[in-house]
Amino acid sequence: MRVLDRDIQDACALVIDSNATSRSLMSAQLRDLGVATVRQATRVTDARIILEHKAYDIVLCDYHFEGSEMSGQDLLDELRREQLLPYSTVFLMVTGEATYAKVAEAAEAALDGYLIKPYTSASLFDRLAHARNRKRVLKDIFEAIEQQNYDRAAELCLKRFEAREQFWLYAARIGAELLLKANRLTEARKLYDAIIEARTVPWARLGVARTELASGNLVAARRTLETLIGDLPDHADSYDVMGRVQMEQGEIEEALKTYRIAANLTPGCLLRQQRAGTLAFYAGQREDSLKLLDRTVINGLRSKLFDMLSLVLVAFMRFDLKDGKNFKVVHETMLKELDRHPKSTRLQRFASVIEGLRMLLDHRVADALEQARILSKDMDTADFDLEAASLLVGFWVRVAGQEIQLEEMNDQFNRIGLRYCTTKSSTEVLAAMAEDNEPAKELIRNCHARIFSVAETAMRHAMRGSAEVGVELLIQQGEQTRNAKLIDMAELVLKRHADKIPNATQLGEQIADLQKRYVLPLSTRTNIRNRREAGGMTLRG
């Protein structure tokens, strides 16, 4: 027996393959190398749940699964985005010649290595030894991340990259991700550019697009992505980021087309199916949305990767179809999930919306109206966000569809619009949730126009030498509307013109207070944005 390394006796491994003979062979080979514990999984969906609940030192995964739309690469992508693979795990993909190109490309981005069938025990030994050695060499970087000392981790990565020390390219990618997540966009862009200059790789080009998107340069990001997609039309991560750019520009239908391409490239990917289904809902393509989201409920409900928002959107569509039988199933499913996580405010809100829809189905209009009023009171809580606002719009519109007079609804929509119309994307999502209620849509879009008019007026004051007036306007309107765009803009204008504003300190304190009350911290927004970031290397810790 050729033992892999001195720690291998303590390792545990997971073998994922639909072929019983292959599973047995791989398990035997791992035991011959000294691995003490080897578990087997026959399906990708089973493996995903296993890996969600236990960390393994080694994972050997076949690329192709007969009768399944989900590949081994789809599994890796989802686990990577949801931060379910520790850095210590070695993930090797096993593939045939037909899929070699895709797997080899993926190895540069996320895999620790791959094996081409048929392979020998010696090949397995070499791949595992190399991957585990890389974990050891870069241990100081991984430990810094686990200790949440991200600045030190980034500096260690930069040092290794600049000295071209062992595994410098891999370290550079980790460093670029750390800089991007820390909102150090200029430094991240420089590193990605340096990586491209040293060795052109798709993930580095995608990293450039992500820095451009994060800095708000949507035109440049779109141009970079169009070139990348033109060169690599099968690179699914590029479509994910392009879809985000299109959403930021308020192009819901274009974003839907893009997300559908990504979903078609990886038909077993739960996240992309949910994303396409959600966008189809916003775009008014409800038949397609219901098919996609129903499918994700069937295939992914037990998974941590499943987003319960999908279930709420299915409830809206079942309500609109007057499908009481299937609506009841959705309602019961949500209540079971709430029983498992009774302290989740988000699930409580989801369950309240579905309960309100059930009241409407039972013709308890007065009860449903009271439910809408209760949900509206949540707007004053710190965790009430765009998602909650959009669901509230959808519920109010359906209450209003019961042929009752609801003058108060316009007041609620005005509050929602003024607070959450921060971008064209957020405005279009809210307008989409207003369904066919044209007065409600117009009200939301008027709120968007008002917010951006205030922003433009403040910028004009700043450009004409009256920065203090501009900042005071943004503070006053930010406090009145609670709009994060206006509050953040007040901070940016103040920082840029602080030397020309006598009471800059006092204004800064007012802005900080508003941000504390009404705006998520930038680091939190960045983490939420990047949690499922396509093309990114997940940073665990």
Description:
By secondary structure, this protein is mainly alpha-helical. The protein contains 27 helices and five strands. Strands 2-1-3-4-5 form a five-stranded parallel β-sheet, sandwiched between helices. Strand 3 (58-62), helix 3 (72-81) and strand 4 (90-95) form a beta-alpha-beta unit. Helix 17 runs antiparallel to helix 18 and helix 19 packs antiparallel against helix 20. The longest helix is centred in the last third of the chain and has 26 residues, at 438-463. It is globular.
Brief summary of the model shown:
The chain has 541 residues and is mainly alpha-helical. The chain contains 27 helices and 5 strands.
Topology:
Blueprint: E1 12-16, H1 20-32, E2 37-41, H2 44-53, E3 58-62, H3 72-81, E4 90-95, H4 100-109, E5 113-116, H5 121-137, H6 139-146, H7 150-163, H8 168-181, H9 185-198, H10 202-214, H11 218-231, H12 236-248, H13 252-265, H14 270-282, H15 286-300, H16 309-320, H17 324-340, H18 345-361, H19 365-377, H20 386-400, H21 407-420, H22 424-433, H23 438-463, H24 467-481, H25 484-497, H26 504-518, H27 522-530
Parallel strand pairs: 1-2, 1-3, 3-4, 4-5
